[in-house]
Amino acid sequence: MPETGAPDTGAEAAEAWRLVYSLVLEGEAHTRLHEACRQVGLPVNLVKAMLTVGRLGQDREPPPSMRDLADHFNVDASYCTSLVDGLEANGLAERRAHPTDRRVKTVVLTDQGREVLARARALMDETPPAFLRLAPADQRRLRDLLAKVAAADSVLSAQRPSP
Q1: pLDDT tens-digit profile of 57-96?
Q2: What pLDDT does residue 58 have?
Q3: pLDDT at residue number 56
Q4: What is the Cα–Cα distance from 137 to 115, expressed in whole angstroms?
């Protein structure tokens, strides 16, 4: 609902969304992801898998299962098998039996995997120059608006732990 009371056509939201995905998929963030992958010596798919295993496994017992990864990426389980095979081949993750159901395999980052993930995140977390061109007040306003959008996102809110 627009704050001005004007009818909401969705045109401004659609334009904002196009700008966000342009920034992420085509702008400095896209370049940043590929540079981080180059610096840690891994392809994008393995870095994304590590980011997901790291996030899904954060403060979680048991760790994420292969099925959890397939569901998250909305892919066939065989694709996740190849991702985890790649992580294991690089010493970055290992499969472990689920503590209560030995038919289920969970995925856990190794110490080396956590170190590589931390390096990749540090590179990706560096603020892109385009954001630094904004005045501090605009940076705060942008942060606050994006926080509102993130809070309203149904997928992100489903992933947040309940208080």
Answers
A1: 776 778 888 998 999 889 998 999 999 999 999 999 999 9
A2: 74
A3: 82
A4: 35
Output the CA torsion sign for 27, 33, 38, 44.
negative
Nearest to 117, CA basis, from 28, 48, 59: 48
Q: Dihedral sign, CA of 14, 17, 19, 22? A: negative
pLDDT of residue 159: 67
Cβ–Cβ < 8 Å for 119, 41 = no
CB count within 10 Å of CB 23 equals 15
Beta bridge partners of 96: 106
Rounded (10°) angle between helices 44-56 and 28-40: 90
Angstrom distance (rounded) from CA 52 to CA 87: 12
**Which tokens go with 15?**
């334009």
* Low-confidence residues in the chain, pLDDT < 50: 1
